[in-house]
Specification:
- The chain contains 13 helices and nine strands.
- It is α/β, with parallel strands linked by helices.
- The chain has a five-stranded parallel sheet with strand order 7-6-5-8-9. Strands 2-1-3-4 form a four-stranded parallel sheet, sandwiched between helices.
- Strand 5, helix 7 and strand 6 form a beta-alpha-beta unit.
- It binds norvaline.
- The site of norvaline has 9 residues, from helix 7.
């Protein structure tokens, strides 16, 4: 059986996404029951960028599934320097049942998946953060009871992994995603094209406006992310000036529906992309969102294991 990977959000069909979210809810209700990674099967986890939520939620979730999370030090391994990505993939594929990797360029992850012979999971790249979107959609569904037809505003740096992933995963779920971002910081046109292609079948849509208030108007969910993604630290000063009109303040949030929820994948920089009173306020669901990383990632691991004939 061919290994099934999760490299970007649209590696799942709309039906598969719904199944994975249902499974996540089931696993959340019974966290220590199902053990599809019993053996224990080893999951190699590699982090080339900083991590808190991703590393801990994968480690805890893999343990709950009966597996073993093996932390591979990407610096020691020298992936792509000391050995080619392809050779690392061939070796890890002989030691582990699944590989989870946070790295920079998306093509590194794709190369890993081509050669590993086992499922590879994107734990964040420069282009996508699909595991976060599984957690985010699970969280929205818990709070709103549904996904299809909702309006989600993503304000700030739309040209980052989270902007791209919201477009694709939102479209798969039938959500209307509006990016509120300045010129030069919106997702590439190909992302909108792909999202609207998916949306043609699900009822979802993807659009971009430069005015933050317009993006947030009538939103059911308001999302933001850091203005300085990992790897872009040298642009921090310039970005502060560009993005300041997009700060998620009480004033901006007032344009959303009265029962709108606020999301942030974290880490958050209070007083920059989000006001302390908003992230720490009654509409914020960020801690549910952080917890749901574990449940959602357990679901995608269990799904890929089953699809790949591992369990
Ligand atoms: N866009 C952010 C997400 C952090 C989880 C980054 O890449 O740093």
């Amino acid at each position: 059986m061919t290994a099934r990977s999760f490299l970007r959000d649209d590696d799942l069909s709309p039906e598969e996404l719904a199944r994975v979210l249902d499974l996540a809810a089931t696993l959340k209700a019974d966290p220590y029951g199902p053990k599809p990674l019993a053996g224990p099967r080893t999951v190699a986890t590699i982090y080339d960028k900083p991590t808190l939520r991703t590393q801990t939620s994968f480690a805890a979730g893999i343990a709950e599934l009966g597996g073993h999370a093996m932390l591979v030090d990407g610096g020691l391994a020298g992936i792509g320097r000391r050995e080619s990505v392809a050779d690392v993939a061939r070796v890890l594929g002989r030691q582990a049942s699944i590989i989870v990797w946070r790295t920079y360029a998306q093509d590194r992850l794709e190369e890993m998946a081509s050669y590993a012979g086992v499922p590879v999971v994107n734990a964040l790249t420069d282009d996508f953060h699909p595991c976060q979107l599984l957690a985010d959609l699970l969280t929205v569904r818990e709070h709103k009871g549904t996904l299809a037809g909702l309006r989600v505003a993503f304000v700030g740096d739309g040209a980052c992994n989270m902007g791209n992933s919201w477009l694709l995963a939102g479209a798969l779920a039938g959500v209307h995603v509006v990016i509120g971002a300045p010129k030069g910081y919106a997702p590439e046109a190909s992302m909108f094209d792909r999202a609207n292609e998916i949306g043609a079948g699900t009822g979802g849509s993807a659009s971009w406006v430069t005015d933050a208030a317009e993006a947030v108007t009538d939103a059911d969910v308001v999302v933001t992310d850091t203005w300085v993604s990992m790897g872009r630290e040298d642009e921090a000063q310039a970005r502060l000036a560009v993005f300041s009109p997009y700060a998620l303040t009480e004033e901006l949030l007032a344009h959303a529906k009265p029962d709108a929820i606020v999301m942030h994948c974290l880490p958050a920089y209070r007083g920059k992309e989000i006001a302390a009173s908003v992230i720490d306020g009654p509409r914020s669901v960020v801690w549910d969102e952080a917890e749901n990383r574990r449940h959602a990632q357990k679901a995608i691991l269990a799904f890929l294991a089953a699809e790949s004939g591992l369990s």
